[in-house]
Amino acid sequence: MNKLLKHVLLIAALAIPVYSANAADIGISAQDTQALIQKNENVLFLDVRDPIEIMFIGFTDAVDINIPYLMVDRSQWDDKKKRFRLYQNPDFIAQVKAALTAKGLGDDATIITMCRSGSERGLPSAEFLKKNGFKNARYVVHGFQGDSLKEGEKSGFRIKNGWQNEGLLWGAKPNPEKIYRTDR
């Protein structure tokens, strides 16, 4: 019986998603992010989504700038994930430094990153910033669009939390001065 219990516990442990040990420490809610921005604190607020995603999902002008952390390679398909391959923006750190300078902030500023849901790009980009010397990097926990419902009539729809669902300002069209562009 003891051996069976250990086996069951091991299987259960493997089914639990693994998150960074400091995810709770660097996570911040959309509401708290908005409050920091309104106080005009020492904050740089980044949307780290690919700009094409922003075009289809929406944007908040509360962000200072869109600097993608992961970008879409439309020339390579990922069969396992059923999507185009994502690769890390090789200029991410340099672009963040430039955005800090443009806003008159130093490396000690609070940098808050936001992706669609907080998990695939928000948390990893904040951790990457921390590893590269930005000790006050954080991420919006449920991102721009939030979590999808697991049950019910609207199962699968991202209407649970996140910037878009918490009554914060957003729109369907990105600000051309803030969106990541390669044409200038």
TrEMBL record:
Domain of life: Bacteria
InterPro entries: Rhodanese-like_dom, Rhodanese-like_dom_sf
Presence of the UniProt keyword Lipid metabolism in the record: no
UniProt key word Signal: yes
Record's keyword terms, sorted: Signal
Residue stretches making up the Rhodanese domain: 39-156
Signal peptide location: 1-23
The protein's name: Rhodanese-like domain-containing protein
